[in-house]
Write a structure and sequence with these properties.
183 residues; 37% helix; 3-stranded antiparallel β-sheet; protein transport; disordered N terminus; Arc Repressor Mutant, subunit A; 10 strands; alpha+beta
Length: 183
């Protein structure tokens, strides 16, 4: 699907509500608007997670426009959707002053921390060491929620675990070689 020069990959399955014209107009009734913003949040997270995209560039996102029903969000409506994504903890501005790029937090750091620790326990990494690279891109993490996640978000999740006394971080020669010991 084309949207202003940007294409939604055919491998990404759009939900039914994406083809409902009122979805592209921010609703005035508060309860309806909250549900609508939740659907936008869900769609944006699924899109970015499925396609392993870590940054939402506001003017390039193909989801804002649905040519098949001739509907699109206005700049003001896009701002409302993005503000909701950030307020809910699933995004943060990469450029606080110009507000054109949002780091997508596929999962909140606390959720990722829980996923990482569950993985470490299930795979026998308690009382042993692995590297940040192994957590990010290793063979043992295929299909895990933290596979390929933005390194800064991964490190925040590890910081949560460290704060809970569930791991310790060790500096390697490069950031990818930094080690993690799980307890």
């Amino acid at each position: 699907m084309s949207s202003g020069g940007t294409i939604i990959p055919s491998s990404f399955e759009l939900p039914d509500f994406y083809h409902f014209p009122p979805f592209f107009t921010i609703q005035p009734v508060l309860s309806t608007r909250e549900k609508q913003l939740g659907q936008w949040r869900e769609l944006l997270l699924k899109y970015h997670t499925d396609l392993k995209i870590t940054t939402l560039i506001l003017h390039e996102c193909p989801l804002w426009k649905n040519n098949s029903i001739n509907r699109q969000l206005t700049k003001e409506e896009i701002q409302i959707v993005v503000d909701d994504l950030i307020t809910s903890g699933y995004g943060e501005w990469e450029d606080e002053h110009t507000k054109t790029r949002v780091r997508i937090l596929w999962r909140k750091p606390e959720q990722l921390a829980s996923d990482i620790y569950d993985w470490a326990v299930a795979n026998g990494y308690v009382n042993s060491i692995c590297t940040v690279y192994e957590l990010h891109s290793g063979e043992d993490v295929n299909g895990m929620s933290f596979q390929g996640v933005d390194e800064e978000l991964l490190r925040r999740a590890l910081g949560v675990l460290e704060g809970q006394g569930k791991c310790a971080l060790f500096q390697g020669e490069t950031s990818e070689e930094d080690g993690i010991k799980f307890f």
